[in-house]
TrEMBL record:
Pfam assignment, any one: Hydrolase
Name this protein carries in UniProt: Haloacid dehalogenase-like hydrolase domain-containing protein
Annotated signal sequence range: none
Species lineage: Eukaryota, Viridiplantae, Streptophyta, Embryophyta, Tracheophyta
Top-level lineage group: Eukaryota
InterPro entries: HAD-like_sf (IPR036412), HAD-SF_hydro_IA (IPR006439), HAD_sf (IPR023214)
Amino acid sequence: MLPRLLLGPLAAAPLPLPLPLHRRLAVAGGIRVMSSAAPAPAQRSRRPLRGVVFDMDGTLTVPVIDFPAMYREVLGGDAAYAAARAAGGGSVDILHCIEDWAPDKQRHAYEVIARFEKEGLDRLQIMPGASELCGFLDAKQIRRGLITRNVKDAVDLFHQRFGMTFSPALSREFRPYKPDPAPLLHICSTWNIPPHEVIMIGDSLKDDVVCGKRAGAFTCLLDETERYGPHDSLPEEVKPDFKVSSLTEVFTVLEENFDLAPAPAESRT
């Protein structure tokens, strides 16, 4: 298992200049990613990494959808929402909740979800550090993919608005969806890259991290608000390989722990 990443204060000693863009961003944010009891870079065993797969909502884009309000409306009020949360161990998987509903009820549920998602698209914002991270991966010839439980229209708008393309980009129309490993395995197969040379990055333990772990990929949890608590407190079955509080910190995760090997030529076409 690779060393767990912890956040630490900025070092008092001045940093050498000039700094790469991602390190300037990290310093500006007042944080730095540190390795706990990590050996010197020359001594660390680095695994090859050829592909990065991202979640979209809450990872590449700033979260704007009021999910509790959406769940209450879909499920039929506070009591039904509370029951669904209790049954899900504190979280709600709304897509699985409605899978077995009668067609008319299911159609209404999807209409409510689509309305909330459309309102979210109107306020779509890219996550700080996303553009720089994608540029870094492109420079290293590392493949970029995307898996979201949002609809294809949302993915298309994301590509158009922010001028970056992820391929493959799998939306809710691809079944089964996260946390099933099928979408991640599909991307690995398309790239002709084994899962153990890929990392899944997302903001959800139950969807993104579980999907990555089940597929046999590395996993990185983006936890901006520390809602999941300390890394070491997470249950082993959902514990990611890495935990960061911003996309800027992902640069350090990749550079310190992996040999960033270009993807096979046939997977870059």
